Amino acid sequence: MADTAAHLVDRVLPQTPVRQWVLSLPFSLRYRLAYDARLTRDVLRLFVHRVFASMRRRARLRWPIDGPQCGAVTFVQRFGGALNLNVHFHTLVLDGVYDPRDGMRFRPLPPPDDGEVARVTRSIARAIARLLERRSLAPDADPDETDPVSRDEPLLAAISSASVRGRIAIGPRAGQAVSRFGDRVDADHLPVSRGERCARLGGVSVHANVAVPQRDRHRLERLCRYAARPPLAIERLSRLADGRLLYALRHRWRDGTTHVGFEPLELLEKLAALVPPPRFNLVRYHGVLAPAARHRARVVPSGSAPVPEDGSTHADSETKLARGGRSEPEDSLPGPRTRNYTWAELMRRVFEVDVLECPACQGPMRVLAAIHSPEATRAILDCLGLPSRAPPVSPPARDTPTDLAQGF
Question: pTM score, two decimals?
Answer without folding.
Answer: 0.80
